[in-house]
Amino acid sequence: MRLLYVEDERLIRESVAKQIQKMFPLEVFTACHGEEGLELFKKYKPEIVLTDIRMPVCDGLEMTRQIRELSQDTIIVIVTAYADFEYARTALQYQVHDFLIKPITIKSVQETVCELIEMVKVKNMDRDNKLQIQISDMLHGLISSESLFWKKQVILSGCRIQEYQKIGGFTPSDSGLILYAVKNIIEELLEVKQQKIQYCLISESYNMFYLIFYTEYFHSTMQTQQIEYQIKKLCEEMVDVLENNLFLPIAHIETGFFDGRDLYSKYLEVEQCMENDRTNQHMIIQMKDAKLEEERIIYALWKDKKFDQVAEKLVLYFNKTNSIQERQNLMIRLSYYLYIAMNEEKGEKQLLFKEFYDSFPKIKREFSEMEIAVRTTETLKKLTEKMEKMEKKILHPVIYNIQKDIRDNYSEVKLLKDYAKKYNINATYLSELFVKECGKTFSDIVTDIKMDKAKNMLNEPDARVYEVAVKLGYHDGRYFSQLFKRCTGMTPKEFQKRCDKYE
């Protein structure tokens, strides 16, 4: 994230910029007048601009006007003397966010920048949702891809789940959970790949999805080939995890790099190949379609730490069959259900699915159902201990109380600086404390809590999506639906249908 500070007084400019860099993980650029500030803005495109008004060469208001012609998303704050405040009010027509009255203090700068960072994060989230819709429209030829993918090279990967209804107890209504798993896998793999790679996951139908990887053109052919190899390797690893860990046989077709302006034509080619592909056949493990009632009971007992009863239920669970493959498949289905249920209960992902699944015993021919049950119960005990240790990390009194405040008043959540004032704590320190203790920003925690409330509300009979959105403080129903899907992998309507299935 980047911040531009424009101030003609050198000592003030250098001192404030140094303090901002010290307090926040920001790239800070400085300029001594509006003309220099405008050039830096064009070059680095900062998300936040702090600017004085009265400066030589070009004043802050003229620079603000020109910035607004280039960007509507940049958050701008005017720094002004009290005597100039009426003059500064003309900046309102340029959609200035706020004013800082001179002489500014380190505390006022801290509080303002902290609030602006949170605003940028919310804007980025909203932009990501809009970008997802835009890329989906481009993929399907509804709009031209030239505006977004001009001078970009793209790899398109198409994936189809084969024989969906016969796979390990999964049904089409579980497609949201599968996409949730795919996104987690991609995010994990991208962490060790080139950070220059961006991607978008587009759901085509209950058994078809597309991954669009895109990056800038490279002058070096060797570098282009290396990035292409990394993306293809990433796709292979994703397919491997889905097939070997979730028993989801995938027909997978991908392109090499192509000009992003040809996205729709490449989509048609890949779609045709997906329909005609008969080479990627898999041995499919058939299982009876279940409503997961047993898994729900086992999870409820595990959550209450009733391990003796868990073991008793597991004996009956694995007594269904003597087949090694089917017993292993039962283990996969059980572990996947427990993983998803745990995340929905706690509102955050604490373990990767692969790490979670690898904790469970691998079924051997000589294992009786009793031995499988005992080993699985021991695994659940260890997982409980591990998660409790994770939970202890977020028991800082202030964090605990703020989270309780948010849960109790989820429709009227305050700004971070308001909670900081309530609990007499520095806002910057509080922001850092959330990341340190929870591994997430304040805004992420607010979203998690609201999405948990949303799931509980949507479970209620006759719940209406727009009413749930309003109760949670979202007055834009479309934004709420997009946010819910980003967090759960399903739209609110899809979530309700899934819940109805298990009633």
From TrEMBL:
Q: What is the protein named?
A: Stage 0 sporulation protein A homolog
Alphabetical keyword list: Cytoplasm, DNA-binding, Phosphoprotein, Transcription, Transcription regulation, Two-component regulatory system
Q: Where is the Response regulatory domain?
A: 2-117
- Tell me the ranges covered by the HTH araC/xylS-type domain, including all copies: 400-498
* UniProt xrefs under Gene3D superfamilies: 3.40.50.2300, Homeodomain-like (1.10.10.60)
Q: What is the annotated role of this protein in its UniProt record?
A: May play the central regulatory role in sporulation. It may be an element of the effector pathway responsible for the activation of sporulation genes in response to nutritional stress. Spo0A may act in concert with spo0H (a sigma factor) to control the expression of some genes that are critical to the sporulation process.
Q: What is its main location?
A: cytoplasm
Which of the residues bear the PTM 4-aspartylphosphate? D52
Which organism is this protein's natural source? Jingyaoa shaoxingensis
Compartment(s) of residence: Cytoplasm
